[in-house]
Each structure stands twice: as C-alpha cells, then as structure tokens.
Amino acid sequence: DSSTDPEEGPVACVEAPGGRLTYRAGQDGTCELYDLQVAEGARRQGVASRLVQAVLSRSYGTVYGFCRADNAPVRALYAKLGFTIYPIPGFYRGQDAFIVVREFLSSKSL
User: Fold this and answer.
1) CA distance 31 to 25
2) b/e burial code for range 15-50 (CB count within 10 A of at least 16 → b)
3) What pLDDT is attached to residue 5?
4) Tens of pLDDT along 59-84?
5) Percent of the chain having pLDDT more than 70?
6) For a Cys-Cys bond, which of 1, 3, 38, 43 suits 19, CB 3.0-4.6 Å?
7) What one-character-per-residue DSSP string does 60-110 give?
C-alpha cells in the first residue's frame, strides 16, 4: 500500500499482527512517521516497537514524527528507541504535542 507525492516522496505502511505504521520517506533520506496504530488487545507486546524498528531499518536520514502531549506510552516508546523528544505548545488545535526526532546516518537506501 503506497502512493507517491512528487514533492514529498512515497507514502508506505509497515504492518505486523495487531498493528500498522504509516510513514513517508523523502528522497533526501528523511522519514516522517504518520500514524502508529496498535489494536488494544495487542498493546504492551512489542508490536509498536517492531513497527518503528522496521521503518528505522529502511531509513538512512532523520526520522521524525509527532505525538500528542497526553500520550505518555508512545513518548516512552520513542525515547526507548533513541528518539529525542521536543515539546510543541498548541500544535494540535491548541493542544500540546511533541515532535520526536532520531538522527540516523547510514549508507542504506530506501
């Protein structure tokens, strides 16, 4: 499942039993994580970690995404996986958010 936006690169999805992660990989090696979903019955079983790691294994530049400030479990996941977390006041319709960023330099290509 992928489509291409000529300005931003392809949109793709990785899936695992109980979850999926949608992301956009730019031609410059950057990768934006868009939508991390894990079914309620599959939570706390490492599904989200495997999904993010699958994208990281395909990336060779900066990987980043956004999360709501009230989503402590996803912030903890990103911190565990080596992302730096920065607050963004009022990002989601006046609600606070965080941007998560991981610099990843490798010779791999997508």
Assistant:
1) 4
2) ebebbbbbbbbbeebbbbbeebebeeeeeeeebbbe
3) 46
4) 888 999 999 999 999 999 999 999 99
5) 86
6) 38
7) -S-EEEEEETT-HHHHHHHHHTT-EEEEEEEEETTEEEEEEEE----S---
Stretches where the chain sits below pLDDT 70 are 1-9, 105-110
Q: Which pLDDT does position 93 carry in this prediction?
A: 85
Using CA atoms, how far apart are residues 53 and 51, in angstroms rounded to an integer? 5
- Per the listing, tokens 């019955």 go with 41
Closest CA to 77 of 107, 56, 104: 56
Q: How is residue 66 written in tokens? A: 């956004």
Q: Is the dihedral of CA 107, 83, 52, 96 positive or negative?
A: negative
14 residue type, one letter:
V
CB 30 within 8 A of CB 62: yes
